[in-house]
Amino acid sequence: MDLKSLTRISPWMWELPRSGAMRVPARIVGDRALVADMDEAVARQLTNVAALPGIVEAALAMPDAHSGFGFPIGGVAAFDPDRDGVICMGGVGYDIACGVRVLHTGMHREEILPHLEALLHALQLLVPAGVGNMSLTARELDRVLTQGARWAVSRGYGEQGELERLEDGGTMPGADPDQVSAAARQREKRQLGTLGAGNHYLEFQVVEEVLEPNAARVLGVAPGDVLLSVHCGSRGLGHQIGTDFIHVLGQAARKYGIPVPEKELVSAPIRSPEGERYFSAMACGANFAMANRQVIVHRIREAFARILPQAALRTLFEINHNTCRKERHPVQTATKTLFVHRKGATRAFGPGDPQVPPPFRTIGQPVLVGGSMGTASYILVGRETSRTAFASTCHGAGRALSRSQALKLAKGRDVLDSLASQGILIRTNHLKGLAEEAPAAYKDIHQVVEATAQAGLTAKVARLAPLACLKG
Fold this sequence. Notes:
The protein is of the alpha+beta class. 32% of the residues lie in helices and 26% in strands. The protein is built from 14 helices and 17 strands. It has helices at residues 32-37, 40-49, 109-112, 116-126, 138-147, 149-154, 182-188, 213-219, 235-256, 273-307, 403-409, 412-421, 431-436, 445-454, and strands spanning 7-10, 13-16, 26-29, 59-66, 73-79, 86-88, 99-108, 201-210, 225-232, 267-269, 314-331, 334-347, 366-369, 377-382, 392-394, 425-428, 458-471. The strands form 2 sheets. The protein has a 15-stranded mixed β-sheet that branches. It is globular. The model has no long low-confidence stretch (mean pLDDT 95).
């Protein structure tokens, strides 16, 4: 990205001033090197987002940002319904409420290492990447779409106590199954409890270093502990909801005179029938994603029961990205209800905020920033000063290379062998997908996380190292 077009408003924040149709400036979190390495499409897409009706304060990009569909991935924007604010499909994306559940295995590295291969094999059998063995009736699917993870727990797929560690207790409000098309329902067939492909994974990680002892104590993690992260989303159902509403919101944009500079930037006023329909359908997609992860967690426990029956896996936390959420935020001299879009970005409310799940309210919203099979991951917590980005932070390292560029860099077998030489076990059904997700295709996660910390969005709690990964 051309830094000459930007103004550095703080050591860790850059601004693209208002011009043309922009209603607010665009801002990017990062150091000089991170911002300079971003593709120019990030600036173009932020400029387009900044021109949408009802946007508040600024269109934002996190330090892991790269170009996406409509919004940049790593993009954040908040809209005021009292100022004709819009809801935008591109601000959520196709994989609605893709997110991460973090489990504590209750075991240390030396205890689990001899069993990793057997665990990966059992997980590969019990957690399918494509279709699974759960067939839902239409009525039962409606319950999934309205109740989310709560539905799964009510059916025996988990424990009641873990719901309080999830966003919204595992159920996003506002869902209306009538807004989910027959095509989306058809694409769901036997996908509940499945991982999906691409960057979705199950990863064993060891806590290498605790960086904030009090928050680590509240979460219950210590050096040497082995955690298991589950990263997946709403599968074909969520993708079809996005596809369906490109058409609905496209018609609405023409009806209400909202410019559409990119296909996925189609929008409708929040308080329009079309906007309300999309929000209700998106909430259904989010609930499916949370139910999906809850069922996967149950399958993980089944796998452990076969190999290490003494293990007692507990949920530490879960955080979503790719959502539009109704939240309370200070705007100038008042606190307002805004609709906050986070595309490849997560919530990061600080300590004491009532929008943080109760178990973490003293430390702030916990977040897992995932690495890329061969690199570190981090547990962070939100800070009070994250309000400068509508209480948001990054969700991963962020791609440095496109998938096609990554395929030219190395073959899947080479990536597999390289990770094995580092002592990292990998299981995958698709070597091509492994090449697309090679560690070299991603930004430096330490640099990305440091930027969010220095910008006041998060505090670093623990650094994790990968032990083994099951890729979809």
